[in-house]
Design goal:
The chain is of the alpha/beta class. 35% of the residues lie in helices and 13% in strands. The protein folds into 2 domains: 53 residues, no CATH class; 193 residues, Ribonuclease H-like superfamily/Ribonuclease H (Nucleotidyltransferase, domain 5), CATH 3.30.420. The chain contains 8 helices and 5 strands, in the order ααααβββαβαβαα. The longest helix has 17 residues.
């Protein structure tokens, strides 16, 4: 193994792997000191170390979390979701539904262009006297358009109201609704109404929200409409969301090719670890 490869390999380890308990992660200076102690090199500057890591495709990353599904029918449920994505049913329309929020009135960190070393400033203190709102939204896979309503609560009543609005929008078509296992989605009155109105509920596997196509749209909404803002009223914030959704829908197109190269498509059982 070359010296550069050794540097990159050690950088990807944890200090705990070397019985070091004084700190939990490497800084460039601590890593350089450790490399010298391990006799990988006799001397190395932080800039040289930074360049070696960059050339070795080792970068500074934020730690992320993951939650494994405990659903024994994960694979079967996953394919029940992927099938209408890949081959939309001829007799109906596939709709992804979910809730987004809470919509607080608060300064939100974001990114914007500005002068070097002069970041845009937002207030650090705020209150929640105006309460919070919730968005109930639906993504039409056939057109890629978003439909939504903002309400103060997200009970089964509000959810059923959204479903009735979707039913009225596409009369005569069977609706296939992809949704998670949130309790209002499984309320007895919701299930009964769906059965009586040609609406099929396609539930995600437990801890499988990433299979809901609308999640990607929520990420974009948060990034483009909310991050970097500091709205002082719900009316102001709701207007910003409305403007973004109108802009987005004017440019929307059919949703196709859900994770075409993802290893999930070859799973025959749920893996022990999902990164």
């Amino acid at each position: 193994m070359t010296r550069r490869a050794s540097v990159c390999l050690i950088a990807r380890t944890s200090p705990a792997d070397w019985k070091i308990t004084a700190f939990s992660t490497w800084s460039l200076s601590k890593l350089a000191e450790h490399l010298i102690k391990q006799k990988v090199t006799t001397a190395i500057s932080q800039e040289t170390l930074r360049r070696i890591l960059r050339e070795g495709k080792v970068s500074w990353k934020t730690t992320t979390t993951w939650k494994a599904s405990n659903d024994p029918e994960f694979i079967a449920k996953m394919h029940r979701v992927l099938t209408p994505y890949d081959s939309p049913p001829a007799n109906g329309r596939v709709i992804c539904v979910d809730e987004f929020g809470p919509l607080n009135l608060m300064p939100r960190k974001g990114k914007t262009w500005g002068p070097v070393r002069h970041p845009r400033r937002l207030r650090a203190t705020y209150n929640r006297y105006a309460g919070v709102m919730r968005m109930l939204a639906a993504l039409d896979v056939a057109t890629g358009k978003l439909y939504y309503r903002i309400r103060p609560r997200r009970r089964w009543r509000e959810f059923l109201g959204l479903l009735k609005a979707l039913r009225a929008r596409w009369p005569g078509e069977k609706l296939y609704l992809v949704l998670d296992n949130f309790s209002p989605h499984k309320h007895a009155k919701v299930l009964a109404w769906a059965a009586d109105n040609d609406v099929q509920l396609v539930f995600l596997p437990t801890y499988g929200s990433w299979l809901n196509w609308i999640e990607a749209e929520f990420a974009a909404l948060r990034y483009f409409a909310l991050n970097g803002t500091d709205h002082r009223s719900h009316e102001e914030q709701n207007a910003a969301i409305t403007a973004y959704v109108r802009w987005r829908n004017a440019r929307a197109g059919p949703k196709t090719n859900f994770a075409p190269a993802s290893p999930i498509r070859s799973w025959t059982e749920y893996p022990a670890k999902v990164a």
